[in-house]
Design brief:
The chain is of the alpha/beta class. It has 14 helices and nine strands. The N terminus is likely disordered. This is DUF676 domain-containing protein.
C-alpha cells in the first residue's frame, strides 16, 4: 500500500502538456524539466553511506578540460557550417550499430547539418553482458574521444534504446562536471518559475563532457530494472518463472543480469540501479540527469516482450491507466504525451528491511521475499528519479501488423520488419529539433 507521501507524489503527475485529441501541436514541448542540484544530499539519504564503486576522476577531469569557450558555450550559428550539437545513439542488449541504420538516416535528414549524429560502437553484442557500470565507462570514454576530435561541438544529447538507456545514464554521470553553463536567460524565465513553484530540489547547472546538456531520450529502457510482475513480459507474469529468472539471469547475461534483477553486490549494499537514482559521494547520477534541459522517456504500453510499461515509464502500478488507442496527429502509434513535474523528496534510501529482503532474495528466493524486495527497491528508485521532471511518451502498437515486435518497432531496428515505428522516430526528431530551436533562441536573447 502506498503511504501518504506516495499518494502526494502520484498526484503531482497529473499535469499534461498535450493529449490525443489535440490537433497539430500535440507534440509540442512542455515546460523544461528541472535540473540538477549543486547541494549535497541530506545526511539520511542513500548516498550518504554508500560506496558507489570505482572513482571516475580522470575521465571527469578530461571532460572538464574540453570546455574551450568558458561559460558562454551556446551559439546562434556556425560560419564554417560545422556541427555544434552532438547526438549520441546508444543501442541495447546483444545489439550493434546496425540497429540504428534507419533512425540515423532519418535523424540526419530531419535535423540537418547542425547535428553530429554518432552511433556508439563500444558495447556491441556480448559486451553488453559485462555490467551497466562497465559498459557505461566504455561509452563515456568513447563520447569523450568524439568530443576531443570535433572542436566545433557546444551541445550534447543522447538517444538510447532499451538497455542502452542505462548505459547512457551511467556514462553521463562519469562525464558530468559541475561547471555551470548559465541558463538564466530571459527565454527560460517561465520555465524556471514553473519549476520553483513545484518546489524542485535541484538547481540548474553542470555539463556533460564539457558541453551544454540538451536532451536525454530513452526508448523502452528498463529504468527500474526487470524484477517484478510483468517487468520482463516474456515471462508472462507467472510467479514461478519470475522467481527463477533472477538467479538464472547471470548465467546468460553476466553481471548485467544481476544488476537488472537488483541482486548485485553484497546484501548490505544497495543495488546499482538504486544508487543510480541519487547522487552518490563520488558519482553524481541524479545531477548528471538534471543537467539536461529535457528528459524524455518513450514506453511501450503493451506487446513489448522485453521491457514492461512500468519500468520503461518510471511509474508505479497504481499510476498506470488504460492508454489511449488513437495516435497523435502525424505520429502513428504515439498515443499520449505527459509532462511529469519534479516531486521534492529527500531521495531514495536502503532501509534495514531492504537489506534483509535483498539477502533473502539472493540466498533463498521465494515468491514472498522476491516480491517484498522488489516493492521496496522499486518505490525507492521512483522516489529518487521523480525528483527531476520527465516528459513521458506512451507508444502503442496494438494496430500494427506485427504488434509483438514492439520492442524493436519503437526504434525501427530493421526498416522492413519494424517500420511501424517510423512515427516514433519522427516524434523524437521533432522533439529534438524543437528543443534545439529553443536553446538557440534563449542564447540569442
Amino acid at each position: 500500500m502506498a503511504t501518504a507521501p506516495m499518494i502526494h507524489a502520484r498526484c503531482a503527475y497529473s499535469l499534461r502538456i498535450s493529449n490525443r485529441n489535440s490537433k497539430g501541436g500535440s507534440h509540442s514541448q512542455g515546460p523544461t524539466p528541472s535540473s540538477s542540484s549543486s547541494s549535497s544530499p541530506p545526511s539520511n539519504s542513500l548516498s550518504s553511506g554508500t560506496n558507489c564503486g570505482q572513482r571516475h576522476q580522470s575521465l571527469r577531469a578530461q571532460a572538464m578540460s574540453t570546455v574551450t569557450l568558458g561559460n558562454s558555450i551556446a551559439s546562434i550559428g556556425n560560419l564554417k557550417n560545422d556541427p555544434d550539437h552532438l547526438l549520441v545513439l546508444v543501442h541495447g542488449i546483444l545489439a550493434s550499430t546496425g540497429d540504428w541504420a534507419y533512425a540515423e538516416a532519418e535523424l540526419k535528414r530531419r535535423l540537418g547539418k547542425n547535428f553530429l549524429i554518432y552511433v556508439s560502437s563500444s558495447n556491441t553484442y556480448t559486451k553488453t553482458f559485462t555490467g551497466i557500470d562497465g559498459a557505461g565507462k566504455r561509452l563515456a570514454d568513447e563520447v569523450l574521444q568524439v568530443v576531443k576530435k570535433t572542436k566545433s561541438l557546444k551541445r550534447i544529447s543522447f538517444l538510447s534504446h532499451s538497455l542502452g538507456g542505462l548505459f547512457a545514464r551511467y556514462a553521463i554521470a562519469v562525464l558530468y562536471s559541475p561547471d555551470t553553463y548559465s541558463r538564466d536567460q530571459p527565454g527560460d524565465l517561465a520555465n524556471r518559475m514553473t519549476e520553483n513553484s513545484k518546489g524542485a530540489g535541484f538547481a540548474r547547472g553542470g555539463m556533460i563532457a564539457g558541453l551544454e546538456a540538451i536532451n536525454f531520450v530513452t526508448l523502452a529502457t528498463p529504468h527500474l530494472g526487470v524484477r517484478g510482475k510483468k517487468q520482463l513480459p516474456f515471462l508472462l507474469g507467472v510467479p514461478i518463472l519470475e522467481k527463477l529468472a533472477a538467479p538464472i539471469a547471470p548465467f546468460f547475461v553476466g553481471q548485467t543480469g544481476s544488476q537488472l534483477f537488483l541482486t548485485d553486490g553484497k546484501p548490505d549494499k544497495p543495488p546499482l540501479l538504486l544508487r543510480m537514482a541519487c547522487d552518490c559521494e563520488e558519482v553524481k547520477f541524479l545531477s548528471a540527469l538534471g543537467a539536461f534541459r529535457c528528459r524524455i522517456i518513450y514506453a511501450n504500453v503493451s506487446y513489448d516482450h522485453m521491457v514492461g510499461w512500468r519500468t520503461s515509464s518510471i511509474r508505479r502500478e497504481t499510476e498506470l491507466s488504460k492508454p489511449p488507442r488513437q495516435s497523435l496527429d502525424g505520429y502513428r502509434h504515439v498515443v499520449d504525451v505527459e509532462y511529469c513535474p519534479p516531486v521534492p523528496s529527500d531521495g531514495p534510501k536502503f532501509p534495514p528491511k531492504a537489506v534483509k529482503a535483498k539477502e533473502a532474495a539472493q540466498n533463498a528466493p521465494n515468491t514472498q521475499n522476491t516480491v517484498e524486495y522488489h516493492e521496496i527497491v522499486e518505490d525507492e528508485m521512483i522516489r529518487g528519479l521523480q525528483q527531476l521532471g520527465w516528459k513521458k511518451v506512451d507508444v502503442s502498437f496494438h494496430s500494427a501488423f506485427w504488434p509483438f515486435f514492439a520492442h524493436n518497432n519503437i526504434h525501427v531496428k530493421n526498416e522492413w520488419f519494424h517500420n511501424a515505428g517510423v512515427g516514433v522516430i519522427a516524434h523524437v526528431a521533432d522533439s529534438l529539433r524543437q528543443q534545439e530551436a529553443s536553446s538557440i533562441l534563449s542564447a540569442s536573447l
